[in-house]
Design brief:
121 residues; HIT family, subunit A; five-stranded antiparallel β-sheet; 3 helices; 21% strand; binds 2'-deoxyguanosine-5'-monophosphate
Length: 121
């Protein structure tokens, strides 16, 4: 499927809609989630047009991949989340309920985050 250039995060990257930015470099932009699910809930997105981890790891350059994942670590560190711990998570595709079709990593911190995944009823 082709990358949808009208997705919300593409618009944020183009500056068409605002975000509460916490970090930016050549490879990544990080900002606060609009609907936080933890005291710290940040999103880190690559600057290139990638839909999910699959096409990111298949098509991005080594520099983009390194720059992005180093940025994820920097964002968590700068959020003060390292000592108490944090979770980083990427929803990819329908079964993971990915809502925004631009690859993004969530960083959750600031409280006990509970178990890793919802178990079937
Ligand atoms: P996911 O289900 O992994 O695709 O999560 C998408 C996240 O993006 C969700 O936690 C809410 C957040 N989000 C959606 N629209 C906006 C927006 O316009 N601004 C910000 N800051 N976050 C958004």
């Amino acid at each position: 499927m082709a990358y949808d250039t009208d997705n919300i995060f593409a618009k944020i990257l183009r500056g068409e809609i605002p975000c509460d930015k916490v970090f930016e470099n050549d490879y990544a932009l990080a900002f606060r989630d609009i609907n936080p699910q933890a005291p710290v809930h940040l999103l880190v997105i690559p600057k290139g047009p990638y839909e999910a981890l699959d096409d990111f790891t298949e098509k991005a350059t080594d520099a983009e991949i390194e720059g992005f994942f180093r940025a994820v670590g920097t964002v968590a560190r700068e959020a003060g989340a390292v000592d108490a711990g944090y979770r980083f998570l990427a929803n990819c595709g329908p079964d993971a309920h990915q809502e925004v079709s631009h690859f993004h990593v969530h960083i959750f911190a600031g409280r006990d985050l509970g178990g890793m995944i919802k178990r079937p009823d």
